[in-house]
Amino acid sequence: MKKAVVLLSGGLDSTTALAIAKAEGFEPYALSFRYGQRHSVELASATRVGAAMGVAEHVIAEIDLRRFGGSALTSDMAVPKDRGIDEMGAGIPVTYVPARNTVLLSFALAWAEVLGANDIFIGVNALDYSGYPDCRPEYIAAYEQMANLATKAGVEGRQRLKMHTPLIHLTKAEIIRKGTDLGVDYAMTSSCYDPGADGRPCGRCDSCRLRAKGFAEAGLPDPLLTKFEGVAP
């Protein structure tokens, strides 16, 4: 089996990307980050997902992006709540973490070189997203071009890196249907920017609202919400 590094945040998109990598015959090596984000719920989700889906190895790398701040996810800045879908598409929100995907993909590139892997999967999406510049197709294309100039293995002709973005042109509903067809248990995932300590989603942040829209359009219940039904907050 060909090895692939899969960026795994524990969210809906990255979990689906992992399932696709497995379905395409790759041996996945999951890479998650403790980067100074405001909660640890997503890492608990990533750990559950990696174990349940049988990754070859799961590394949680440590980076302190909180030292720079600049985002509601890496500072005490308030997370936006109750915004409409139109509002979410108007400008880049404060939940954008400066250069995050570039930083995370650099770690993935380094690990891929060590593993002798030619493939990196990332669950970025350019349709139902919050305007992040590092989720666009042109960004991914530019990163792939740069990555193939950046490593010893690439210069020596031992590596030709391919960036896989299987979700980039899918709506959230299409992503959910795809993952469901592949047997993904979305109850394991966490999408919320401001969850409770027990992992309960707030239901009001941009990510929660986009997730709810996706499940509604897919005609499916969100199993994460079902898990918390009848449980006191």
Shape: globular
Can you summarize the main beta sheet?
A: 5 strands, parallel
Give the name of the CATH architecture: 3-Layer(aba) Sandwich
CATH class, anyone? Alpha Beta
Order of helices and strands: EHEHEHHEHHEHHH
Query: Average pLDDT, to the nearest integer?
Result: 93
The name of the CATH topology is Rossmann fold
Strand order of the largest sheet: 3-2-1-4-5
Instruction: Let me know the CATH homologous superfamily.
Output: HUPs
Q: How do the strands and helices of this protein lay out in sequence?
A:
Layout: E1 2-7, H1 12-23, E2 26-34, H2 41-52, E3 57-62, H3 85-88, H4 100-115, E4 119-121, H5 137-150, H6 152-155, E5 162-164, H7 172-181, H8 206-218, H9 223-228
Parallel strand pairs: 1-2, 1-4, 2-3, 4-5
Describe the overall structure:
Helix content is 39%, strand content 12%. The protein has one domain (2-228): Rossmann fold (3-Layer(aba) Sandwich). It is globular. It has 233 residues and is an alpha/beta fold. The chain has a five-stranded parallel beta sheet, with helices on both faces. It contains nine helices and five strands; from the N terminus they run E-H-E-H-E-H-H-E-H-H-E-H-H-H.
